[in-house]
Design a protein that fits this description.
heterodimer, A: about 110 residues, six-stranded mixed beta sheet, three-stranded antiparallel beta sheet, 9 strands, about 0% helix, globular, B: about 120 residues, seven-stranded mixed beta sheet
């Protein structure tokens, strides 16, 4: 089955740029989605289809996807961005949906 | 407003069964593929199962195939997950989620805790 690999944690100072990677074999050929989950809450999509941004999500959130790595970029990080972030793809070959292991973003 | 509300969770003994429900409102339920996702407390998200709009297309994660059954009642706007032969490894918060567009999950329920323990 398809595997997505994320770093367990990323730390960044307020106002700086955070980049969270999601690795997978030829992930550039998949459509990648990103979710934010804060403690005690359900996940919320922040990026869909590699770089689409749902209404209400700040422009500070952006995504890219190429080769074997997809990246969620958060510019001008705020304390309120502290959360777990998960990448997500649909593996059509097996009709399976796959999540990465998640990355905890800490704003120092 | 789109709402998904799970129910039916709780404590069950190993080997037991439980049926989760997810009541949908605020949208035309029959137009959307639906999913179950679970999360062991303190751990990551794991996709469990999906069902297409009419129920003609269903898939499961390997770890639950043969034990869990997903279904839906479009007339009642409700999604179900029948869970049998439960083990401690099934202890988790279970979320129902709506799939939209390019298979991303744009709406989620609040989650319901299932605890498998003697």
């Amino acid at each position: 089955s398809y595997v997505l690999t994320q770093p367990p944690s990323v730390s960044v100072a307020p106002g700086k740029t955070a980049r969270i990677s999601c690795g997978g074999n030829n992930i550039g050929t998949y459509s990648v989605h990103w979710y934010q989950q804060k403690p005690g809450q359900a996940p919320m999509v922040v990026i869909f289809s590699d770089n689409g941004r749902p209404s209400g999500i700040p422009e500070r959130f952006s995504g890219s996807n190429s080769g074997n790595t997809a990246t969620l970029t958060i510019s001008g990080v705020e304390v309120g961005d502290e959360a777990d972030y998960y990448c997500h793809v649909w593996d059509s070959s097996g009709d399976q949906w796959v999540f990465g292991g998640g990355t905890t973003l800490t704003v120092l | 407003e789109v709402q998904l509300v799970e129910s039916g969770g709780g404590l069950v003994q190993p080997g037991g069964s439980l049926r989760l429900s997810c009541a949908a409102s605020g949208f035309t339920f029959s137009n959307y593929w639906m999913h179950w996702v679970r999360q062991v407390p303190g751990k990551g998200l794991m996709w469990v199962s999906h069902i297409s709009t009419t129920g003609s297309r269903i898939s499961y994660a390997d770890s639950v195939r043969g034990r869990f059954t997903i279904s839906r009642d479009n007339a009642k706007s409700t999604l179900y997950l029948q869970m049998n032969s439960l083990g401690a490894e099934d202890t988790a918060v279970y979320f129902c989620a709506r799939a939209y567009g390019d298979h991303h999950f744009d709406s989620w329920g609040q989650g319901i805790l299932v605890t498998v323990s003697s």
